[in-house]
Amino acid sequence: AVFDPNASAEEALPVREYVNVEQGSLILEPEALKREGYAFDGWYLEPECENLWNFGKHVVNSDLTLYAGWT
Questions:
Q1: List of residues 6+ apart from 7 with CB closer than 8 A
Q2: Which of 22, 28, 3 is nearest to 61 (CA)?
Q3: 30-39 burial by CB neighbour count: b if 16+ within 10 A, else e?
């Protein structure tokens, strides 16, 4: 799985965390990111932040990128 901070490069957030995950398994939620002027809102399946990933329920079945949500 790839964790994308979904922010501009100028903000110097960690670009991505890579985690090796077995197919069909749960993944652990990484520590919430911090971004000046924003509140972290969770990890989503798309950059537009429409579908929140549930770390206690959803399993990884293929390559996966999760995007940080901000409010």
A1: 13, 35, 68, 70
A2: 22
A3: eeebebeeee
The 3-state secondary structure of 2-71 reads: EEECCCCHHHCCCCCEECCCCCCECCCCCCCCCCCCCCEEEEECCCCCCCECCCCCCCECCCCEEEEEEC
> Per-residue pLDDT for 52 more than 70?
yes
Please give the Cα distance from 39 to 41 (Å, whole number): 6
- What is the percentage of the chain residues whose pLDDT exceeds 90? 51
In single-letter form, the type of residue at position 68 comes to: A
